[in-house]
Design brief:
This protein is mainly alpha-helical. Helix content is 58%, strand content 8%. Strands 1-2-3 form a three-stranded mixed β-sheet. Strands 4-5-6 form a three-stranded mixed β-sheet. The longest helix is centred in the last third of the chain and has 34 residues. It is elongated, with a radius of gyration of 27 Å.
């Protein structure tokens, strides 16, 4: 599955049909007898529970079935919240589901929630997965197989068993982004040569302001990538988290600016420089948080993997904005 067209195929074309659907009115003993009589598929991760109309109503981890009391009805021990792939889903949609929810398998259902097949993670990796159930599914939480899903979201064939040359070719573009941003930053700094010559204290605190901006952008980026594991980015999602992130960064900026301004005043007794640095910190913290949220969301939207590409791009944009606003404010005020 390494060409682009494959990712656009219907996932139903790759779904297994050897799944076990158990009626919710069966008790544990009856379900086990049914399984023994009818047999199970080659690879069973979960049992899916259906109603009398064969509509999906729950998922039953193997562990729950084995330790359940014989007289317990399946609807009493099943997990009612089930993540399912619509029949119209593509292979790429399935990849996003695995990366987001981190379950080992998903049912593929039609418009009436009737199961058409099962797609498991083994479809997307050649690695042998150890079939385990997690008690965390008590609250319908994803299984924590982080290592398994590190590659999902990439074109798997690009990453797996890559030669040193291929790894160099894949990783170099993002390092070039850093080199490019560094060069742009150097050119921009040269534009403020007069300002730098007139106020050395601005130069003294430049690395501090730059570091604060980069720290906030990376923090925001990390939080955003984690949030995207459990929620698909939409405009509403973005605006909601943008509002929250701006509020947080504003408080962080005010806190840091007060401390730094106090240091400047105590050390150099320069109130004007203290105002410039404090104002720059607040503004840059807000901008950095916006990049930290916006870049991963945009990359995810464009089907690029945020884990690899978001860092260099976010830092590059944050550094450029830091120079422009920090030295720009200093030029206007000083």
């Amino acid at each position: 599955m390494n060409d682009k067209s494959t990712y656009e195929h219907k996932v139903l074309d790759y779904a297994r049909k050897d799944f076990s659907a158990l009626n919710k009115n069966l008790n544990v003993d009856e379900a086990l007898k049914k399984i023994r009589y009818e047999g199970i598929g080659e690879r069973i991760v979960y049992f899916y529970v259906v109603d009398d109309e064969q509509k999906l109503v729950g998922v039953l981890p193997t562990r729950r079935l084995l330790i359940g009391k014989a007289e317990q009805k399946l609807e009493e021990i099943m997990v009612k919240r089930v993540a399912a792939l619509p029949a119209s889903s593509t292979v790429y949609d399935a990849l996003e589901f695995f990366a987001t929810y981190k379950f080992l398998a998903f049912p593929v259902v039609d418009a009436e929630r009737k199961i058409l097949g099962i797609v498991d993670v083994n479809l997307f990796t050649d690695e042998l997965l150890e079939e385990k159930d997690s008690d965390e599914e008590e609250d319908a939480k994803p299984v924590a197989y982080d290592a398994i899903f590190e590659t999902i979201g990439f074109r798997i064939s690009e990453i797996k068993n890559a030669s040193p040359f291929k790894a160099w070719r894949i990783r170099l573009p993002w390092l070039i982004a850093t080199v490019t941003s560094g060069t742009i930053c150097a050119l921009l700094t040269g534009m403020f040569e007069t300002t730098l010559a007139e106020s050395l204290i601005i130069v003294f605190f430049f690395t501090l302001v730059l570091g604060l901006g980069e720290s906030v952008s990376i923090q925001s980026m990390t939080v955003t990538i984690q949030m995207m594991h459990s929620a698909k980015p939409t405009l509403k999602w973005f605006l909601k988290n943008l509002y929250k992130e701006v509020q947080t960064s504003l408080m962080l900026g005010l806190s840091c600016s007060i401390i730094v301004a106090a240091v400047v005043i105590v050390w150099k007794n320069d109130f004007v420089a203290a105002i410039v640095i404090a104002l720059s910190i607040v503004l840059i913290q807000i901008i950095a948080s916006v990049w930290g949220l916006g870049v991963p969301a945009l990359l995810h939207r464009t089907k690029l993997d945020p884990k690899i590409s978001a860092g260099p791009i976010t830092l590059a944009l944050t550094d450029i904005c830091t120079i422009l606003f920090y030295f720009g404010i200093a030029t206007l005020i000083l």
